[in-house]
């Protein structure tokens, strides 16, 4: 039984009814001051006996085997892959467990040694041997022998396992019985209160009926609006996915050639090499990796880098060239990573796409996952350059607003990073601007104030370290 199924909060719905009744002119006293107001009187909900698994770098086999059915599948995914199973995949595995087509050991092993499981490297003590035996037991010749030997070895522990299983089932049944009793008592109390209120109604019954009808009509309108909003959101998401190839073409048209992008990333190569980052134990995570030029540069110099991008076309392009990239939201992927698990996080032209609250959360997640002494690099267009601030920034229709260097530097330092510097970037970023006027030309000083704003670096990066 899955505890997440029973989430309908009757008390909450009826509180909304009571508030709507009062808003439309009805007297709260007519319903009673304590009319189904939830709180301690809220209907109870079933929960599994075993508490949900907590994130740890390692687990014992027994910790995961203690769960059953859907709870086992959900907790196995959370422990090994750091996420909930997708709806169809979780249902398929659960049905396979129920039919006997899969075993718990088989599920844990397939998740742990899947491509996604190898990325997280969650250790499960005691899993390797039984999983190996499970795979060998399916061999045509040696399989029956192994299954017979395994059954003989497990025979002595069968009474203890049966007793443990019976204990878990007894606890679940007892908890379910207690829940049924509580629901019965709570329902009886509510029905008694409702009957008392109905019996005490007088001439106000017609008015109350009118109010109820009005409320239902309003509720219908709200439900229709919610459904419309959900459909609009779905269409927008589908439209966004359909525009992914178009954005790739846009980048190719305006951002520059792959060789130019690699040239612009060269300063960061020196930074990570000097810091000793980019090893298997301190990989570099590039958020918004795009076409993967920075990842290629890292690979060409023997460094380990992994990319994250929401654009599936970019991710497919990276993978086709042998680069490691994940399609997904950078904030969600970082949140799934263990603390202090990466050497550096880089983001070239990603900050200007984010709403301010999301940018703050992204910086916080970077601080959590970066190892002590590791680097954060955020590159963005420089609004100190007049042409960038007034024109080139808006070439990309997905940009939100320019970020002044001092503001981004302050924000990164305020969220906990140390040694936060501003690197104004000119390599591979030549711009056709008029030269400064000679000092002896009349009015040169005033004109040069404006010209210097055209000569400012078109991009800058905030570079910071996590403290030791």
Note down, in words, how this protein is organized:
The chain is an alpha/beta fold. The chain has helices at residues 10-23, 28-31, 61-65, 69-80, 87-99, 104-112, 115-120, 128-136, 142-155, 158-199, 205-242, 244-254, 258-274, 293-300, 312-320, 330-335, 356-369, 386-390, 405-414, 444-455, and strands spanning 58-60, 123-125, 284-287, 305-309, 325-327, 342-348, 370-381, 418-425, 459-465. Among the domains are: 58-155, no CATH class; 249-465, Rossmann fold, CATH 3.40.50. The chain has 20 helices and 9 strands. It has a 7-stranded mixed β-sheet with strand order 5-4-3-6-7-9-8, sandwiched between helices. Strand 6, helix 17 and strand 7 form a beta-alpha-beta unit.
Secondary structure topology:
Layout: H1 10-23, H2 28-31, E1 58-60, H3 61-65, H4 69-80, H5 87-99, H6 104-112, H7 115-120, E2 123-125, H8 128-136, H9 142-155, H10 158-199, H11 205-242, H12 244-254, H13 258-274, E3 284-287, H14 293-300, E4 305-309, H15 312-320, E5 325-327, H16 330-335, E6 342-348, H17 356-369, E7 370-381, H18 386-390, H19 405-414, E8 418-425, H20 444-455, E9 459-465
Parallel strand pairs: 1-2, 3-4, 3-6, 4-5, 6-7
Antiparallel strand pairs: 7-9, 8-9
Helix pairs in contact: 4-5, 4-6, 6-8, 13-14
